[in-house]
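Homework help thread (please don't just give me the answer)

Our assignment gives two proteins as sequence + structure token strings and asks us to describe the second one. The first is just a warm-up. Here they are:
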Amino acid sequence: MSKDLLFGLNHWAVAGDVLNPNKFAYKIVQKLLRRGYEVSRVHPRGGENVYVSLKQLPNKPDVLCLVINPKLGAEYLAEAASLGITYIWLQPGADTEEIVEQCRALKLQFVQSCVLVELSLREASETSKE
């Protein structure tokens, strides 16, 4: 699966601790927003502007980024597949062997990498071209 393809898609749902500034899910949301992406926040506890499930989102996201405990991640993968969300970004720690196998079983296309690192590399590349 191509990282370029996923970064070319505009609407991302980030599942994780999206309200805690010390957590990677929050940092990913902020970085994607700064880069002009539409971002929906998802976490089982919900919260201000945070959805409990993908089904609650007003618009279907193009990409689901998992930054969450793999047990919860498995539930979000099943939900994504049922909604026709086929592009998945698996952050380090969320990308267990079971999660990868579930992606394959559900015929989901996925990337295993760190969004923050990949976006930083892109920014550095764009800056060096100027």
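The one we have to describe:
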Amino acid sequence: MESKDQTDINTLDQPLQKTDQLIREIGFLEAQVEELTNHMKSLEYDLAEMIVENNRLFIRVKNLANRTPAWPKGYRPSRKHNHKQ
């Protein structure tokens, strides 16, 4: 059996163990928050790059869609007259 002194030491160590465990959990969660914050910043940067590229391509597509089509030089399209009369 444990002596009274040994029991007192164990009861004193329990709050310290809980405190150490809470400090470790807080440290772990802080590390996760920092990691996720860095990941979010990276994704925001990628999104900004994609927005700029999307705007550039949007302007290009808009210009291409609004211009009149041009045949290659020397090309003469011909219709095939295959009507039955």
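TA reply:
I won't write it for you, but here's a hint about the kind of observation we're looking for: The mean pLDDT is 85.
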